[in-house]
Amino acid sequence: MAEYGQVKMYYARWQNGEVDMVKLDESNINPQWAVEIKWSNQYYEKPGDLKPLLYFMKENQIKEALVTTIDKHGVKEVDGVFLHFIPAALYAYSIGRNTLLEVR
Questions:
Q1: pLDDT per residue as tens digits for the range 41-95
Q2: CA–CA distance, 2 with 80 (Å, rounded to integer)
């Protein structure tokens, strides 16, 4: 578990998969959102290959997730869920900026 500002983020892992960052609802421990960190554009081109993330989303009734890329951005729909792709550098910048703004 990592804590940034007021947000506690977790890593989800099970026998056949993992998801890099998960935010849990503290009152009932249900996942609210998920982020998959990738240093590749591969999954932007083939989002169906994100099988562990898609499985996690289905099992936890999450309709949207974020996936980082090298330089691609956009939204892809796979099996009724939406994957928001964003360059990893932009995501890192936004997390850093938001964290600094919270500290002030």
A1: 999 999 999 999 999 999 999 999 999 999 999 999 999 999 999 999 999 998 8
A2: 30
